[in-house]
Amino acid sequence: MTSVYLNGDFLPMSEARISPMDRGFLFGDGIYEVIPSYDGQLVGFGPHMQRMRDGLAELEIRTDLDEAAWRGIVETLLQRNGSGNLGVYLHVSRGADSKRHHAYPSSVDATCFGFTFEIPPPPVADRQRVTPYRVSTAEDLRWKRCHIKSTALLGNVMHYQQGQAAGAQETILYNSDGEVTEAAACNVFVVSDGVVATPPLDHQKLPGITRLMLLDILRRHSDIPVEERVVTIAELLQADEVWITSSSKEIAPVTMIDGKPLGTGNVGEVWATAQGLFAAHRYDY
Q1: Strand, helix or coil at 1?
Q2: CATH 3.20.10.10 segments of the chain
Q3: For the domain 133-281, what is the CATH code?
Q4: DSSP state, residue 14
Q5: How distant, in Å, are the alpha carbons of 47, 149, 155, 263 from that of 207?
Q6: DSSP letter string over 142-166?
Q7: Choosing from 99, 144, 149, 249, which is the catalytic residue?
Q8: Which residue of 57, 146, 168, 192 pairs with 163 in a disulfide if CB–CB is 3.0 to 4.6 A?
């Protein structure tokens, strides 16, 4: 994974240089996306690009790159870095100014960066072969603009590390009203009595692309009831199944929460159905 994209050029990673005055470095003033690909096929490219445009618009960052240009960059990165299972990381910061000042500068060019990295093969919808997740829970202490996929991820990183320190692989978060928001790096789904539910989108949650695709796939290609509604932490702890979703994990089943088995402690049947449907339609977007 040696070839990267930086501001119009493809070059070796070892030669890529960004100014220490870049506002992405100084302020976390930027947006990023991670797009998975399997054997050169991109998963959810269109929705990822729409979320990037939305985030850049909210931060008032402008680039000359449209969706076609980004697709060309992504495809070139994949060609230069080999086939197989690769994630593509795209990063746009406001750019480098001559001074450190909180206000947005008006005359700097955005920094556009991209690289690839190896990812595991796509999950298989097999309850016996999947590796279930252990998670912890914690009150959500991040900022109130989580719907922006900002490069300023310290709040998420601290919550993720909190789970790691507790021997878990993720941390599911809830607000002061006891309502589940999301996980440190994932969206959250629960299954109770055959009904799949996930918290509705708002400023407390990132609009995950896997979340978007999964909801659409279940509604269009299955009879499984799906709800977007408030999910409490009490309901999560009593659910039949809990899933965490992200572009790198797709749909990951959870079987342990705060050191205790969830339900029977086994991966659920609804998960297997959902993961199978997702695998069948992951390239439709």
Answers
A1: coil
A2: 133-281
A3: 3.20.10.10
A4: G
A5: 10, 9, 17, 28
A6: S-S-TTS-BS--HHHHHHHHHHHHT
A7: 149
A8: 168
> Using DSSP, how many helices (H) and how many strands (E) does the chain show?
7, 15
Q: Provide the 10 A C-beta neighbour count for residue 21.
A: 14
CATH number for the domain running over 3-118: 3.30.470.10
Structure tokens at 53: 């445009």
Structure tokens at 262: 């969830």
Contact of 41 with 75, CB cutoff 8 Å: no
* Alpha helices per DSSP H over the chain: 23-27, 45-59, 67-80, 154-165, 209-221, 233-238, 269-281
Q: Is 149 a catalytic residue?
A: yes
Spatial separation of the C-alpha atoms in residues 185 and 176, rounded to whole Å:
20
Whether 209 and 47 have beta carbons less than 8 Å apart is answered as: yes
Q: Is 8 left (phi over 0), alpha (psi -120 to 50) or beta?
A: left
| pLDDT tens for the 285 residues of the chain, in order | 589 999 999 999 999 999 999 999 999 999 999 999 999 999 999 999 999 999 999 999 999 999 999 999 999 999 999 879 999 999 999 999 999 999 999 889 999 999 999 999 999 999 999 999 999 999 999 999 999 999 999 999 999 999 999 999 999 999 999 999 999 999 999 999 999 999 999 999 999 999 999 999 999 999 999 999 999 999 999 999 999 999 999 999 999 999 999 999 999 999 999 999 999 999 999
* Residue 146, token pair as written in the block: 């989580």
CB atoms within 10 A of CB 140: 23
Element (H, E) at 64: none
Check if the beta carbon of residue 34 is closer than 8 Å to that of residue 247. yes
Coarse DSSP helix, strand, coil percentages of the chain, rounded to the nearest 5 percent: 30, 30, 40
How many Cβ atoms are within 10 Å of 198's Cβ, its own excluded?
Answer: 23
